[in-house]
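Cont'd.
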Amino acid sequence: MIQTVVYGLTIGAILYFFSVGLALTFGTMHIINFAHGMVYTLGVYLFITFLQALGESFLLALVASLLAMLPVAWVIERFVIRRLYGESLDYAIIATYGVLLIGTDAIKMIWGTTPHPVNDPIGIALPLAGMDLPLYRVGIVLSAFALYGALRAFFKRSLVGKVVVAALEDAEGVRCLGIDVNRHFSIIFVLGSALAVLGGVLYAPISTADPYMGFHILLLAFAVVIVGGMGNLNGTFLAALALGMVMAVTGRFWSQAANAMVFVVMALVILLRPREAH
Amino acid sequence: MSSPAPSSAFPVSPAPRGGLVRELALIAAGLVLLSFVIRIHWMADFAVFFILVLSFDLLYGYMGHLSFGHMLYFGAGAYGAALWLVYGNASALIALGVGMAVAAAMAALWGGIVLRTHGASFALINMAFNEIGHFLVQSPLAAYTLGEDGLSCSADPLFGVISLHEDRWAFVFTGSMLLAVYALLRVLTRSPFGILVRSIRENESRVQFLGYDTFRFKWVTFVIASTIAALAGALFTLVQGFVSPRVISPFGNVDVIFAVLIGGAGHLGGALIGAAVFLAIKNFLPVMIPELSRWLDVKLPQWELWLGIVLLVIVFSLRGGIVGTLRARWRKSRAVEAGA
């Protein structure tokens, strides 16, 4: 039972790391950003490469892959996302999907298609009620809560955060105040991408890296963003954990149904919610 | 809101009479020409894909509703036909009807639900249903569909002579179905009904202000588009004699969306051209690239990367796809002549 809860919270935590960027891009720019999946996957592959190059130091490789992904995220924002601002939904989807395809193919070309396993960096299991609970999973869950607190503080206290919260409500209004909204969106995009990479790296030891991992988490993250209310940051956190639990509980009784159940919940939420503006 | 292409590209005035016959002849000639270029074995698959893309163009290009779940109805048609052939009897035409009826019933039911949403929600709730459908044939219904292993089936020859497992007959049968679907959609999209559907794409509130119940029109269009997709799926089953969960996988949606966009959404001929270009990218690049890379002695990326680049080019410099761009250019040159 406790194991199921921890597993659910772990998946939820990873979904949260990934979905924050997706929710912010959707909330501020009304773009469904498929390229997020590519940033996530590429980050994990870079992490694996750095891990081998830097002598199996998990933290060092994590920092190196984060730093390496910042310019990649900036390039995507500058040359694709920014040009899509104010465009119709479908063109944004297609362009970012194009980026996802290019990235996935490049990854397949450089690293091949065989899955790469990553070792658990802590490797300690807590004995709990007759079962072993990996300490690493507990760490992931705690870091998601820490991230939630940090993001709350960031959006409440820092100027960049405040501008973005205002822009989530009304980007045009903020622009009219003479604030360069694009620059703030750019910062937020890079931040969201870094969080996706962080989530991917944290998830790598309990899964395996394969070129299509970004596609799979994207589908689940869409459900998170929809259930959480499209750009609602508290909602994203709650939805990620709740859907993680849905997956874990379903998976416990019927493992093949875990993914499908997430979409059942998503469909129900869309139906029961009052009609949204867009 | 999603509006795929500038509205000025689509004149509401009806085309001159006889246009339909000319267009059908053109498509038939194009198909026959294509069958000389590529192996005839592939032609039936191509025709099936053309039908699927046409059905999606009705939903997305004409009505402006981007769906990530259109493969649900293709898959429902394919599985409906296959299950009838295995557990019912071996009649190809009944199987075709069963596949379409199953999908139409599903679309009628789900359409009432999904059409309450717009934009991103519509795209993603369809994806959710598609994912659920994919899961259903893979696991809970595996006793009938045999899950991942797939289901083999075969139909008796049509009218006792036309065997769809023969490449030539399969091509003739699917090709004539394609012509029928094209004719139907062309008449439909130019009818008052079609004009209303296009008006919904441009501005749904205004259509409502005019006193129309837009939901009913959207629902009917959704069911028609889904049923035609199911026709493509059922034809796929009849020709292939085999279905697996791949036919209902949500990843297939992307192919259809891109085919429509490459050609130019909201234009039936554009959809066909886009589908042909997409199939060329998808089928010939994976064959050509290894040879090219052996010849150049460098490692070249696979086809997905090239498709990604094509998509970026379309979005950033070829809005309206091939047909939309050509039309705009033609109109511009005519305007220049008129001015001079």
